[in-house]
Amino acid sequence: MTAFGPPVSLWQTTSASFLAAREPLPDRAEVAVVGGGLAGVATALLLARAGVDVVLLEADRIGSRTTGNTTAKVSALQGSVYGAIRRHNGDDAVRDYAAATLDARAWLLDELSGAAEGTLEERPAVSYATADEGIDALTEEADALAVAGITAEWCTPGSIELPVEVRGALRLDGQHQIHPLGALHVVARRAQAAGAVLVEKARVRDVTTARDGVMLHLDDRELRADRVVLATGLPILDRGLFFTHLVPTRQYVGAFRVPGGAPELPMSLSVDPVERSLRDARGSDGARLVVVGGNSFTTGRDEDTQHRLTDLVDWAGAHFPGAKLQTWWAAQDYQPEHHVPFAGLVPRTSDRVFAATGFAKWGMTGAMLAARIIAAELTTTSMPWAQTFHGRRGSVRTLAAIAGANAAVAKEMMSGWARPTPTADSAPPVERDGLVPVAPAADTGCSLRTVCTHLGGVLRWNTAEGSWDCPLHGSRFDADGRVIEGPATRDLARE
Predict the structure, then answer these.
(1) Between the CA of residue 177 and those of 15, 89, 118, what are the distances in Å?
(2) Is residue 482 exposed (0-12), middle (13-18) or buried (19+ Cβ within 10 Å)?
(3) Are strands 324-336 and 267-270 parallel, antiparallel or unpaired?
(4) CA R_g for the chain
(5) What is d(CA 309, CA 292) in angstroms, rounded to the nearest whole number?
(6) Three-class SS state of 91
(7) Partners of 384 in the beta sheet?
(8) Residue 351: enclosing H or E segment and its boundaries?
(9) Considering the entire predicted model, what is its pTM?
């Protein structure tokens, strides 16, 4: 494990586990929601309030994955997102994305009004550039924001107080940062109060569909539902072929104590080739810390992730003199090649399966807009912008990006089987049983087949996090071979 200790998010150290009530899993529900992050829990709340019989199933604990590892910015200013959407999809898509984001943001802020201190804090949002490429991205973003009807202030160098030399920036006041687990627990408790059943430690291994409903297959039981919502990051059901146009990315995040205490910072994100995310937050003792994120990479495609974490810590020390790392963690998200989240029916599922995915690091608003769209469609209403999020786009630019992404996956598939055994000192020793790579499990004397149980990619050891990561579609497994993140739903085979 890394010299910085095991990964634990600041939010987990400053929030008690939700611990859903130990209710027995029913045999049937009108709607089953899979995934206990903000997207899934908000969907369950909206459906329960509409009188729908809903059961939510979470493989681990509520908020234990992406929601519990985010940087948690609830902002309509989102780096270079609007410019990318406009470039791939045109002006109407930008307007719809802005309308859906503002609606989602307003809904969440309303739900969190009156929440415990520290759950919600107002801050300005800043997108900034330190290099020529970043200035170009800011200019494109400013034009797209104008199309969307969002008025961000263009700031000149010296007018933004950040610990870096800023060449230009966009600023939007009146945005918010949240404690993501505190916020999620508010929504989860309200979902339960509205009648939703939330079940933790219930991993769904498969979903089968029929004309009269769906069957969810767990380890030792089954649940029948009329419809199912997959809010699992990359959906665990391959029928929508989401893995062909979603790129899994991870980024590292650290919380740092600085001499004299951290100042209140604007929620800031660079739009340079190497992203840096900044915000402040309270530690477990109430002291204000600096939260730094960045060093993104495609999951499973880095030979030594430790150097990315080290670089993040070094950057924080250089820009906040005396900064001392308190805890660090990593977040995984999925970037759609057309740059718009997906929220709606999964194709070829007899109108039974819905999915929410592709939030591209903006899950605090993306999760909510997906929940709003899906809950409306499941209760026979509709959001006016819903069609934009149904994923049926094919611009030349997007098709080229999808082709490139899948070519990279094919290359990883072939090179993985030919790749020599890892050389990093921290990697478990890998041998070949014929062509199949095997490595010792951490908990027993047996060996693991380090081959992803999704589509057979050869796994790469994550030196920072001590996990086996798939370079194809981002599935991850712990050192004992247990699945951590999908689309895989099965543990590694043992020998």
Answers:
(1) 16, 29, 9
(2) middle
(3) unpaired
(4) 22
(5) 11
(6) helix
(7) none
(8) none
(9) 0.94
Of 296, 307, 291, nearest in space to 334 by CA: 296
- From residue 441, how far is each of 5, 6, 438, 468 by CA, in Å? 20, 18, 9, 11
Q: Can you spell out the DSSP letters for 169-201?
A: EEEEEEEEEE-HHHHHHHHHHHHHHTT-EEE-S
The pair of structure tokens assigned to 344 is 């709606």
Rounded to an integer, what is the distance from CA 350 to the centroid of its chain?
A: 28
Q: Roughly how many angstroms between the first and final C-alpha of the chain, as a whole number?
A: 24
Residue type for position 11: W
3-state secondary structure of 298: strand
- Residue 161, pLDDT above cutoff 90: no
Helix (H) or strand (E) holding 29: strand 28-34
Q: What is the Cα–Cα distance from 183 to 191, expressed in whole angstroms?
A: 13
Task: Express the helix, strand and coil content of the chain in percent, nearest 5 each.
Answer: 30, 30, 45
CA dist., res. 429 & res. 434, Å (int): 16
Please give the single-letter amino acid code of residue 4.
Answer: F
pLDDT at site 409: 61
Over residues 242-252, the pLDDT tens digits come to 767 788 999 99
- Give the whole-angstrom CA distance, residue 281 versus residue 256: 10
C-alpha span between 290 and 288 (Å, rounded): 7
- Tell me which residue of 360, 457, 370 sits closest to 417, measured CA to CA: 457
**Residue 399's pLDDT band (cuts 50, 70, 90):** low
Centre a 10 Å sphere on the Cβ of residue 149 and count the other Cβ atoms it contains: 11
d(CA 328, CA 253) in angstroms, rounded, equals: 6
- Predicted local confidence at residue 274, as pLDDT: 86
**Taking the mean position of all CA atoms in its chain, how far away is CA 313?**
22
Q: Average of pLDDT values for 274-280?
A: 94
Three-state DSSP at 423 gives coil
Contacts of 50 (CB under 8 A, 6+ apart): 375, 379
Q: What pLDDT, in 10s, does the model give residues 454-466?
A: 988 999 999 999 9
Q: In what order do the strands lie in the sheet with 431-433?
A: 431-433, 436-440, 447-449
Task: Read off the amino acid at residue 189.
Answer: R
- CA gap 152, 146 in Å, rounded: 8
Matching residue, tokens 């800023």: 166
**What's the token pair of residue 307?**
């150097």
- Model confidence over 69-105: pLDDT tens digits? 999 999 999 999 999 999 999 999 999 999 999 999 9
Which residue has tokens 């999020």?
Answer: 389
Q: Identify the helix (H) or strand (E) that includes residue 54.
A: strand 54-57
CA 432 to chain centre: 34
